[in-house]
Amino acid sequence: MQDPADQADYAEHSPLPTVREILALPEVEAGRPELVAGASGQDREVRWAHVAAGRGVAALLDGGELILTTGAGWPQGGPELRTLVEELLGAGISGIVLELGRGFAEPPEALIRGCDAHAVPLIVLRREVRFVQITQRVHQRILGAQNEALRARAEVHEMLTELGLNRSPVDYVVEQLAGTLQAPVVLEDPSHRVVAFAGFGSAVTESLAPWAGTVPAAGSPTVPAGSERVPVEARGTRWGALTALPGPAHPAGRRTVLELGAFALALGRLADAEGEQWLQFGSKRVFETLLGGRYRTDAELAAQLAAAGLPIEGAW
């Protein structure tokens, strides 16, 4: 079984600043920035800031860069400028900051049209700035966010791996996940019956609605947009799925946290050769709900029973 932390996409737990956020930096505001094109792309993430000069800059790009340029060495117009613009935009850049004065008195029309067509923000600076200060601040933001994500990931990984190795009860693991993600978390078996859930302050009926209704025979519960859903599996065997309903962003990445939780549950499941723990816990939860009166309304009770595979609607 491979640790999902080793296969998680690095970008998923490395939040990047957006063009909009970078425009708000004091170093950029000092240049009196003006957004002249590509306004709809302001939420593009910026992977790096790159100071560009000359015509061959597109060949040096990997995508996601914020280009800082004075336009020095660029063609002043005609087919050559259009070609340069197409090459830049084709490289997948996140935005262009053009300082006016040296290369262009005003942004060229070909650049404006191209940025609008590709939804790439074009920002002009009407006052001279030091590009090195902007790149330094942008890179500090990027590296700081990456370090925060890695620290958060390491903390979550340590906690959940320890829970798995200690064979912590499934309900406790689910509760820890819900607390970490600050959102409801649901563990289900292969038949989509709820084994454990933690509502994290949300209404039980709302949290369990996707499982309390009719689940497609060959599909999965229809969860709200913004949910994360991962399988709980190991050694080619899938035992169920773990779902986090919509909630706030997490520095480590919500999906990464959920995958680490699934990893912890899989460790415990591997040690439970007969699969008794999940079955016993699911049954115990239903009986405690009924006999212990652990519900506030009939609708809440009905939702818990239906999610456990015991629908009572129309039973009497």
Summed up, what is this model?
Helix content is 41%, strand content 15%. It is α/β, with parallel strands linked by helices and 316 residues long.
Question: What's the layout of helices and strands?
Answer:
Elements (H helix, E strand, L loop, with lengths): L18 H5 L2 H4 L3 E5 L10 E4 L13 E5 L8 H13 L4 E5 L9 H10 L3 E4 L5 H35 L4 H12 L3 E4 L5 E5 L5 H9 L15 E7 L2 E8 L9 H17 L5 H16 L6 H10 L9
Helix pairs in contact: 3-4, 5-6, 5-8, 6-8, 7-10
Structure characteristics:
316 residues; five-stranded mixed β-sheet; 9 strands; alpha/beta; 10 helices
- How many β-strand runs? 9
- Rounded mean pLDDT is 81
**Secondary-structure-derived class:** alpha/beta
Strand content: 5-15%
Number of helices: 10
Q: Give the overall shape, derived from the CA principal axes.
A: elongated
What's the arrangement of strands in the largest beta sheet?
1-5-4-3-2
- Rg calc: 26 Å
Task: Give, in order, the helices and strands.
Answer: HHEEEHEHEHHEEHEEHHH
Separation, N- and C-terminal Cα atoms: 47 Å
Residues in helix, %: 40-55%
Write a structural description:
This protein has helices spanning 19-23, 26-29, 78-90, 109-118, 131-165, 170-181, 204-212, 254-270, 276-291, 298-307, and strands at residues 33-37, 48-51, 65-69, 95-99, 122-125, 185-188, 194-198, 228-234, 237-244. It is an alpha/beta fold. α4 links the parallel β4 and β5 (122-125). α5 packs antiparallel against α6 and α7 packs parallel to α10 (298-307). The longest helix is centred in the middle third of the chain and has 35 residues, at 131-165. Residues 1-14 have low confidence and may be disordered.
